[in-house]
Amino acid sequence: MRQKKRLGILGGGISAVSLSYLVPRGKFETTILEKENTIGGLARSFNKEGFVFDVGPHIIFAKDKKILHWMVAMLGENKHRLYRNNCSFYRGRFIKYPFENGLAALPKEDLFECLYHFINNNFTGEPKNFKEWMYATFGKGIAEKYLIPYNKKIWKIDPSKLTTDWVGGRVPKPPIEDIIKSAIGIETEGYTHQLHFYYPLKGGVQSFVNNILRKAEARHGKNLMIVTNCTVVSVIRRGEEWVVMDNSGNERVFDILVNTMPVHVFVGKIAKFISKETRQDVLHLRYNSLALVFLGLEAPKRTDRFAIYFPEEDTLFHRVSYNDYVSPHLSPKDRSSVTAEITYRPGDVISKMTDATLTQHCVHELHAKGIIDRRTVLLKDVLRITYEYPVYDFNYAPYTKKVYGALTSFPNLYSCGRFAEFRYINMNDCIKSAMEIAKKL
Length: 441
What we know:
- There is one protein chain.
- By secondary structure, the protein is an alpha/beta fold.
- It has three domains: 5-80 and 201-283 and 393-440, FAD/NAD(P)-binding domain; 100-184, no CATH class; 287-390, Protoporphyrinogen oxidase, mitochondrial, domain 2 (Polyamine Oxidase, Chain A, domain 2).
- 32% of the residues lie in helices and 24% in strands.
- The protein has helices at residues 14-22, 65-75, 108-119, 130-155, 176-184, 206-220, 263-270, 276-282, 355-368, 396-407, 418-421, 427-440, and strands spanning 5-10, 28-33, 45-48, 51-54, 80-83, 87-90, 93-96, 196-199, 224-227, 232-238, 241-246, 251-254, 256-259, 287-297, 307-309, 319-322, 336-344, 377-390, 413-415.
- A hairpin with a 2-residue loop joins β10 and β11 (241-246).
- The longest helix is centred in the first third of the chain and has 26 residues, at 130-155.
């Protein structure tokens, strides 16, 4: 009889690496299977010509103090604490983020409409969708000038076709006192749970994941194995065991299996034990993809601003980040970098644009808006992420219930992470999910 249970983790992102640390010591032989040549998933970084880019800008924060304490401890000495200095770009002006906390910087007519409709909100009844929720919560002015156009860019769908299931923890309603203060120029802060955040001094967000892995290896020793360049092609159920086959023909057998891969990949392609009906059900879960345009610049580092949000339709990108704000070590000396984020739907117009076209658009629009000087661009790169945003349309609730009802019917099978669980969650929530699974093991 085996003394230790065999635990298989599919995927090597932040959820997987955190879980590998958190599992009870001495009770498991844990194996992480990762298709890329390095661990990290969406929380990884890469170096190109001396510029370090995160795969999507990341910050380390959490409402839950226990989770935050754990994350900070995992960072070790390689960390510093920063103030969120973000803004929105609206009609040629930089408006403090979140938009409703920077109303005084708006043109006077826009300011009046935002303040008036927040105070005199004529929406009645319960909102039936996300669009109605924005009107009910913020009033016509803020909703139409910022929230609705910005969310159209993110979700690639009219907000009336989205539910309100996800907004409570992500888009809090500001108190009326803050709106009035904001309108007359008295400093206020919104989304205070992320007002201050942590970030690694060196190595990008990858160093955070690497630190967790080092601590996991020290904690579990030879009972933890990391296998990279390993593409899982099938999972079957054989008796009470899970049998995992990779693209090299290797077969690995586990007592417990944790999936951190996108549910569309796991259910749709890999999990051979899943019914045809469930494979069809997962196709009803809509998601958006993300193109990241990375630019290295021959320009001084910007340390006065981090992220800029773009609600207006003249740009494809919805957010641009000055990467050097979070660390002076992400660019070579006398150099700097920015990352532009562009959401798209598989098969839509943006998805069919070439990388060169996306880059050209970003450079042109960022130059036109004074964000960069195009003459300083030294480096260009594009990375596309297929699975980035779960879309909370009206298919979301019934079909997640069916898909995860089917998955949870199998013993010793767990889902962990944003796209494995198909929830719009951040790193801190992924770690919390890993903690909850570790308690069950």
